[in-house]
Predict the structure.
Amino acid sequence: MGRLDELEAFVKVVEVESFSEAARQLGISKSYVSKQVSRLEDRLGARMLNRTTRQLTLTDVGAVFYERCVAILDELEEAELAVNDLQSRPRGTLRMSVPMSFGVQYLSKMVSGFMAEHPDLDVELSLSDRVVNIVDEGFDMAIRIGTLKDSSLIARRLTPVGSRVVGSPAYFEEHGTPKHPRDLKNHECLRYAYFSTGTIWHFNRDGEEVSVKVDGRMTANNGHALLEAARQGVGLVLLPDFFLPEALANNELVRVLGEWDCDTGAIWALYPHNRHLSAKVRLFVDYLVDQFETPPW
């Protein structure tokens, strides 16, 4: 930065032909301007300016150097303007990691709407229930569902989400209906491989908390696979609300333990902690907040 200060001071002195006026326009002292120009000449081992009591003129070397300095400062200004433009308009590629089923069912439509509003932006959507390392794997952001662990990432809550225990009418006809969360120990339970609490399901009713370790023959790393298995009567499943509207409306699945709250947490947008957040991430997260003001399920 010292060299840049020297160049700016030198160019301004040449432009206004005065150390005093250069100092005024730069908002610094005259002595500091003089010091920067002298330091520049000492470092280069060449006199840039001829100084008299009446005027300042460029030496031959100074004239050549001045032209190069002007070009350098112009390039720097253009670079800064380009960054400012990118900060105000989303461009380039937005790379994000999104849970598979949620991404297909809901987020893909939102991404399409956002792209229609921002034609200069490309989107690379990675659909997987795996918890990615956003920084190491080169993602700009990720969508996650549940209760977050502490991390250095910025997390913005998009919407709260609860979960329900459901099963098919055929399953309940054959195996009976659980009346209390502890009854789940006697039922075939379909388990999500990436569930933050593993095989333990948590319930709350009027301050009463119950945790149940469930068991069953099927584990899957995708919610829609478990949803379909529940439809086929394989067992009971604990799933977030957004999976269930259609199956419940069609009576393919029935909710049980309805008086018990199974709070999953929330849907979150996560992104790295950068001092200057890129426009593509900032605007897309703001867009999602608006979209989830009224959840689409």
Q: What stands out?
A: The longest helix spans residues 60-88. Residues 29 and 101 are 63 Å apart (CA to CA).
